[in-house]
Structure formats: C-alpha cells, structure tokens
Write a structure and sequence with these properties.
By secondary structure, the chain is mainly α. It contains 8 helices and no strands. Helix 3 runs antiparallel to helix 4 and helix 5 packs antiparallel against helix 6 (137-151).
C-alpha cells in the first residue's frame, strides 16, 4: 500500500512589514475617532468659556507684558506668560474640539446652574471684605464665620463656639504674628484710648 502524502501543516502567517499596522490604524482613524471621548454634563459650556478666556488672555498679552532689551529669552518678563497662554489656547482648542465630536449627555444647564450657585459664596466673601474696614477685622471675621457655619447647615452653640474660636485664631495669626496689613475698623475709634491702640494693632 502506497504511502499517502502527509497533509500539510497550518500555513504560517506572513508577518506584516514594518509600519503596516501603524499605517492601517491611521487610515481607520478620522478626526472624530481621534478626539471622541466621554463627555460629562456641562463639558461644552466649560470648553467654550475656557477657550474664550484663553483667547482673551492671548489678545491682552502684548499690553500686559513686555520684552526687555539685552535680556536672555528665558528671563524675559513676557516669555513664560506667552508659553503658558499659548499652551492654554492649544489645549483648550483640543478640549473644545473633543466636546463637539463627542456624544452629548443631558444635564448641561443643570450643571451650569450649580456653577452659578457657587457664586453665592463669592458674594459672601465680598460682603466680608467690605465689613472689615467698618467694624474691624476680628468682629467681621467672627460674623463671617458664624454666618458661613449657619449657611452650611450647622446649628447649635457648639458650632458657634468653634466658629468664634477659629476666628480668633485666624485674626491673631494673620494680624499679630504674620503682621498682615489689614485696615483697622472705624468702630475701634469709639473705644477707650487705652484699648484703641491694642485693637487697631493686633485685632
């Protein structure tokens, strides 16, 4: 009986030539595939605002910085701000492009409203800054701390005591030890002379 020819083994795959896989990946990736990502609610609003801020800073750069003669490039006052702002423009542009090509997730305006609600605390702080020259650093800080404690939902005498103690520590630290120049309150003018200098200097 004649020997039957043996069946050929599995054919070996020819390895792709160098660079073929990379070229195939480039051909299958279009602009949307390259920049598409997971997009969170409010991402588009943030991308637009940040890109507009970057462009505004880039436009204002020539008026806010200068190039000094006979100074090395890396030591120029305008060099590093220019590098930073150009990077902001480039990356914010990519962020905005990614927002455009990514799938929208509902909840944009709900997220924006959360951002606007946070501006309330900026108003609180502005009121605190306005009160310091009128009633003094220590009374304004105590009032601000207690108001913030109540605003955040903490009730009871224990939380109020913690707020008062925290205010005293902050005032003594900044005004007495660090000697930060903070305007003395007009209300201090009505105090007796022996205490007036102490209050205006340390509190």
């Amino acid at each position: 009986m004649a020997n039957e020819p043996s069946s050929p083994g599995p054919a070996r795959e020819t390895p792709p030539r160098a660079g073929a896989r990379f070229a195939r990946a480039i051909r299958t990736k279009n602009l949307e595939d390259l920049f598409k990502r997971y997009r969170r609610p409010g991402d588009m609003a943030f991308a637009v605002l940040f890109f507009a801020l970057s462009i505004g800073l880039l436009i204002a750069l020539p008026w806010q910085t200068e190039w000094v003669k006979r100074t090395k490039t890396y030591a120029q006052p305008a060099f590093w701000p220019m590098i930073s702002i150009i990077a902001m423009v480039v990356f914010s542009m990519f962020h905005l492009l990614g927002s455009f090509v990514s799938e929208r997730i509902p909840g944009r305006w709900r997220e924006v409203m959360q951002w606007l609600r946070s501006l309330e605390y900026a108003v609180w702080f502005m009121a605190y800054v306005a009160l310091v020259p009128l009633i003094g650093y220590l009374p304004a800080t105590i009032l601000f701390s207690c108001a913030m404690t109540l605003r955040l939902g903490y009730r009871g005498w224990r939380w109020m005591l913690i707020s008062v103690l925290f205010s005293i520590v902050v005032v003594v630290l900044f005004k007495s030890f660090l000697q930060v120049k903070i305007p003395a309150g007009l209300i201090y003018e009505a105090t007796p002379a022996p205490f007036r200098a102490i209050l205006m200097t340390y509190f």
